[in-house]
TrEMBL record:
Gene Ontology terms for molecular function: phosphoric ester hydrolase activity; zinc ion binding
Ranges of residues in domain Polymerase/histidinol phosphatase N-terminal: 5-83
One Pfam family this sequence matches: PHP
GO cellular component: cytosol
Record bears the keyword Flavoprotein: no
The entry's keywords: Hydrolase
Annotated SMART domains: POLIIIAc
Name recorded for this polypeptide: Putative hydrolase
Length: 240
């Protein structure tokens, strides 16, 4: 299996180690056809990227496209789920500039009133089975609401650090043509999740979630999971 694009990479603009150009150069060295820069939306604590900086990233990508014509450079975003209604933190002025919309559930966000039930039950999930089940229900509801509200291309690292109903989320994503991510930073930890999701007919992207340039295009963990589960190539959107 050959992966042709890496759509979830980070740079110094958030909590990555390299520049956009360094990610692009590594993608070219790895033989990729496409590379996506997907910084966090502004509401995630400490590493969120402001609306002004998101426009700066988009402008920088436009300039790099003229320099590196051998690869397609995409302006993506890893938006954050901000409440139980499925709202996300993408500024309205950014949406028209995006090539791909990625959405992740990150616990460490600036809370809103409607986020508090999620925060409360996720915090108590490790102490109480009641709160764990309630957290699972609310987390899943929030993600499904987001999938139904927006045209989301990829749900990033689903189930990472939160409890969700895999089957319900995968079914909603399959109905809306939203893919789930096989995140190469998680490795074997998501094998069971992928196996359950696959039964719902959902499709996947294998992404590096690179936080430094040398990890761009490093898909070994994700490919290994796909092989172990015998995932048909047509279910991996960015495979060739």
């Amino acid at each position: 299996m050959k992966i042709i694009g890496d759509y979830h990479t980070h740079t110094k603009y958030s909590h990555g180690k390299g520049t956009i150009e360094e990610n692009v150069v590594m993608a070219i060295k790895r033989g990729l056809k496409e590379i996506g820069i997907a910084e966090h939306g502004p509401r995630v604590l400490f590493v969120g990227v402001s609306e002004k900086k998101l426009h700066k990233i988009a402008d920088e990508i436009e300039n790099l496209r003229t320099k590196y014509k051998e690869i397609k450079i995409l302006f993506n975003i890893e938006a954050n789920l901000i409440d139980i209604h499925g709202n996300i933190d993408v500024p309205p002025s950014i949406l028209p500039r995006l090539d791909m919309l990625l959405v992740g559930f990150h616990p460490n966000i600036l809370p809103t009133y409607h986020y508090l039930p999620l925060a409360y039950n996720n915090f108590l999930a490790s102490f109480s089975s009641h709160n764990l089940e309630k957290a699972r229900k609310l987390n899943t509801m929030a993600l499904v609401n987001a999938v139904n509200k927006y045209k989301i291309d990829i749900i990033t690292h689903p189930g990472h650090r939160i409890h969700i109903d895999t089957g319900l989320l995968a079914k909603a994503c399959a109905n809306r043509n939203t893919a789930l991510e096989i995140n190469c930073r998680q490795g074997e930890k998501i094998k069971d999740f992928v196996e359950v999701a696959l039964k719902e007919g959902v499709k996947f992207y294998i992404n590096s979630d690179a936080h430094k340039p040398e990890d761009v295009g490093n898909f070994e963990e994700g490919i290994e999971i796909a092989k172990k589960l015998n995932i048909p190539k047509e279910f991996i959107v960015n495979s060739n």
